[in-house]
Amino acid sequence: MTEKLKVKEYMTTNVVTVAPEDKLVDVANLIRQTDHDGFPVVKNGKIRGYIASSDLLLCDPDNRVRDVMSTYLLVAHPDMNLMDSARVIFRSGLSKLPVVDDSGHLIGIITNSDVIRSQIERADPRKVQRLIRTLELMYNTKLDLERSIIDITELIPTQSKIYADELEGRVYELKRGLTEPLIVIQMPNRKILVDGHHRVFAAKKLDIKSMDAYLIHMHEETELGLERTAKSSGIEQLDDIEILDYAHHHPLVRATQIDLDTDSDDNDQ
Q1: Most CB within 10 Å of its CB: which of 21, 196, 209, 237?
Q2: Long-range contacts, stretch 64-72, CB < 8 angstroms, 24+ apart
Q3: Residue 259 lies in a domain
């Protein structure tokens, strides 16, 4: 597969919007409530403009959004290549792009954080195909692939720990409507979770029962190496996984953090 990542796969679908008739004081309050720096302006489902926090400066709080909003907009289409949207964001100096369909309806928003996330941890078809090729070589078998909605309670984990900070990030993403697929190996009598442990835990916290997945069918009964490793660590179900404090345990944090000794600074003066 050479399928490229699309904006619709990583955009936020639960978008906070304002209306042209809203007062600027209400927009200011919404900025404080949400920590957003601006909002798409929508009427009857269609995008009419964009209002940023800077548009509120020196304006009468009783003025309307339509009086100060920008009507010249850069937008993305849901089928736009994700990297093309990243180039627009970077070259324009913006932090986000409204996502608009062919009829002008707002259906989402894509941010620079969404683009970064897509590169840090993603389950795209290329990653899945690399895994399939590896498994076929290791076990001398032929595998089939399908995209399917699966019951997360049926999954057998292969990871012994997850990180609390990253878990909260996945909860936040799911609340925003992001639906990155899991990678699961389907044996004749069980489903093995290969990629997406943080996402599954986040779904459990939100009482989400099923999730989208790349389902790799392995037709002959085989015990995978990652299964044996998980069992040796006492991991047989999702609740066996340990949740660690990201700030104290994650190797990336340990590798980059420094300890500033303020007492030493005082003594050097």
Answers
A1: 196
A2: 64/20, 64/21, 64/22, 64/23, 64/24, 65/18, 65/19, 65/20, 65/21, 65/22, 65/23, 65/24, 65/27, 65/41, 66/20, 66/21, 66/41, 68/24, 69/20, 69/41
A3: no
Pair (57, 173) in one structural domain: no
Is the domain of 125 the same as that of 249? yes
pTM summary value: 0.56
pLDDT of residue 152: 95
The count of domains in the chain is 2
**Among 85, 118, 151, which residue terminates a domain?**
118
Is residue 101 pLDDT above 70, yes or no?
A: yes
Q: 195 and 130 in contact (C-beta within 8 Å)?
A: no
Backbone angles phi and psi of 243, in degrees to 5:
-100, 120
At 184-231, the pLDDT tens digits run 999 999 999 999 999 999 999 999 999 999 999 999 888 888 888 888
Asked whether the beta carbons of 24 and 60 are under 8 A apart, the reply is yes
Do 134 and 240 belong together in one domain?
Answer: yes
| pLDDT, averaged across the chain | 85
State the average pLDDT over residues 24-53: 94
